[in-house]
Amino acid sequence: MAAMSSGKKLKSSKVVKTGTLSRKKHRFESFSQRVAKLNIDPIHKRRSAEKDLNEDDPKASYFKSDLEKWRELNLSENFADFVREVSPLCNTLPQVLHYHSDIARILAIYIRKGDALSLEPLLSLLASFAHDLAVKFETHFSDAIALVTSVAAKHTDVEVIEWSFNCLAWLFKYLSRLLVPDLCPLLQIMSPLLGKEPQKLFTVRFAAESLSFLLRKAALVHHKDHKPLQNAVGFILDAVDQLDQEGKDIALYYYGLKILLVDAIQGMERGLHSAGPTLYGFLVDNILSRLGEGTARLNILEGVTVGLIHHTDASTFRPLLDHFLRRILHETRQRLGAQLPDHAVRMCERLLCVMSTVRKGSRVQDWSLMLDALLELLRSRQEHDEKPTETLFETAVIIMQSAPLDVLLPKTRPVMDRISNDRYQDYFLIFCDFFCKLDQERFGNLIHPYFV
User: Fold this and answer.
1) Angle at CA 98, nearest 5°, toward 92 and 100?
2) What is the DSSP string of 240-301?
3) pLDDT by residue (tens digit) across 324-366?
4) What is the pLDDT of residues 178-209, one digit of tens each?
5) How many of the other CB atoms lie within 10 Å of CB of 95?
């Protein structure tokens, strides 16, 4: 006997197709997809020329070792011609040092041809050449940077772009002792690639990632010598101010500098580099003391802060947040009855708002310090009879919404006494309206009693 139907049609569960990575070794990828996958980070890698070299041999040459490897791997006509021309000049390290001018000239000739089939070994050999010469490479450095950057900016092959910026990064690594004491000349050379002149976005990003290693090095020696970091950060911020005053579009340059600073501060995974807190703290202190009337510097700091919030978690972001909050408390309390300059107050308000709102304030661990900083800023505005900004009241709402009740309740009355003061009466209803829209229940418990 056939089973009776229930009268209901069973709907087959809909299969949701989810994308998976293709296992095919050869598949089409757009130019932008291929560029997005590139990672310019030679700092944690070793080149094959370094692995194969017998460093105990005083005559051993990185250039010669690299040349022998590429002689077997690359059989392009252009590279074969290069090998025939350069081989007699580089059998040993003393020979490389003696003929360095001839080797540099030959390398420049063949790299300038722009042959995609031979550029990978040629750019690798340029880095090995710099490794051999060390400080003696200084005479060729400017020409080498100009040559490699021109290849990176003009070539259309993704691989060539990657090889070019990897070469730059290796040059910076090998010559860091020479470059770090004064990064200003290098920043001047690289500024067009950082966005001071029209560039493609990926070119700006790769240039910034290549330079970040040197900025990190300057931060590492900051406790011994203040000048390298001070000069580098000063050069960056002065350049932004100058372009802003001239009325030029600095959006691309701003993007490049933000990538440079964020990459120098952040570390592996969701952490910070060991020099990261030093660099961020110096950036905050420098901008707070020299902000002036313009907003270009503040935009840089705000962009860097947002980038770091996205990269970190609450525990790793805490050193940066603590430094900033301590700076607010120090500045306002140290001056007692004196007034923080208006531009410094505005900067503190904006950064406090950023840290409270981006990622819904999930990077804040100690809301008590946030409330203390808010109180100091309110006091600074009030004691000097200044009009509050919308940013300050929005920040107050966000902090009071986000802070745990056990932290917020002891500080609610001091904050509300400031906000409900007669001087702020024109803004109090705006504050209440914004608070009520975000969290009606907490508004009723905390704010509504002030209407009674």
Assistant:
1) 95
2) HHHHHHTT---HHHHHHHHHHHHHHHB-STT-B-TTHHHHHHHHHHHHHHS--S-SHHHHHH
3) 888 877 766 655 445 566 677 788 888 999 999 999 999 999 9
4) 999 999 999 998 998 899 988 888 889 888 98
5) 17
